[in-house]
Amino acid sequence: MNPHILSKLKKDHNISYLEDVLLKKDFFSFYINLNDKEKSFYMISGSPSIVGLEDKPVYTVLEIVNQIEPDNTFSEIDGKNLYIQKLTYQIEHLSHELYTFIPFKNKTHDKPIWLYLKFDKDKNNNLVFGQVLRIYDETPSEIIYYQKTHQDPLTKLFTRETLKEHLSKNTHQNNAYGMYLDIDGFKQINDFYGHEKGDQFLITLANFFISRWEHNVIYYRLGGDEFFIYAYEHTKEQIIKRAKQLIYDIEHLNLIAQKHNISASIGIIELCADLSEYNKILDLGDKTMYHAKKQGPGRFAFYNQSNE
């Protein structure tokens, strides 16, 4: 650090860089010992009472997790359990500095308090240091942008952009499949009841998907009445069973579905190292889905070169 600049800050602005900036008194910093079985949070400076925690020197993981607001933008996209698991994994397996937002429960308002934190490891990779850099009472613009990018505004499912990101990052696990799904007869709902009722049908379907969320099954809305399901840790027999169940569930989703014989056509692609590019997967999935649709409503088909 430049001692001249530090002295000038203190003299001209009455600011101690160490106390008022690096370890800002209003916020707090801590460390986690990764070798500890409990992985407790040890306070270094400041007080977490500003975000509703009891003022004490050590916190258990459970105390911190219980303070995280479960109904937040990230959990809506990742799922509540997956969000906590993903955050924990990121912190425990740091390879470089991590900057992230974490929503804490707000005792006075329905909206969470958003903490912007920096995490970093010591040179021996035994300790993780955390520092709260900012605290927001309103949802930060970065979170709003994240939500618009990754969450479909109508259905709250993942978007095309999220699917593209997932496919680019994932080296597919064994037995991974993509399911391109199109609603059979959806136009009848719009024509008979109007587009508002059609939108409500899509929301109902998406809520059904979300209620059946599993760790190895991810749902996306591609647009209109087209959806994509990424499923891994599935045998071919299990993916066939899932396709049949999806068709049955959509046909029996509600009274409108049953009255107008709504169903679904599904194109299934087995994902592998040679087939992991976003545009190619969607193109082949779309063609395979239409191959199934030509056989009549409520059918599914597996991709093979003859479908192209």
UniProtKB/TrEMBL annotation:
<dbReference type="GO" id="GO:0043709">
    <property type="term" value="P:cell adhesion involved in single-species biofilm formation"/>
</dbReference>
<dbReference type="InterPro" id="IPR029787">
    <property type="entry name" value="Nucleotide_cyclase"/>
</dbReference>
<dbReference type="GO" id="GO:0005886">
    <property type="term" value="C:plasma membrane"/>
</dbReference>
<dbReference type="InterPro" id="IPR043128">
    <property type="entry name" value="Rev_trsase/Diguanyl_cyclase"/>
</dbReference>
<dbReference type="Pfam" id="PF00990">
    <property type="entry name" value="GGDEF"/>
</dbReference>
<feature type="domain" description="GGDEF">
    <location>
        <begin position="174"/>
        <end position="305"/>
    </location>
</feature>
<dbReference type="InterPro" id="IPR000160">
    <property type="entry name" value="GGDEF_dom"/>
</dbReference>
<dbReference type="GO" id="GO:0052621">
    <property type="term" value="F:diguanylate cyclase activity"/>
</dbReference>
<dbReference type="GO" id="GO:1902201">
    <property type="term" value="P:negative regulation of bacterial-type flagellum-dependent cell motility"/>
</dbReference>
<dbReference type="InterPro" id="IPR050469">
    <property type="entry name" value="Diguanylate_Cyclase"/>
</dbReference>
<protein>
    <submittedName>
        <fullName>Predicted diguanylate cyclase</fullName>
    </submittedName>
</protein>
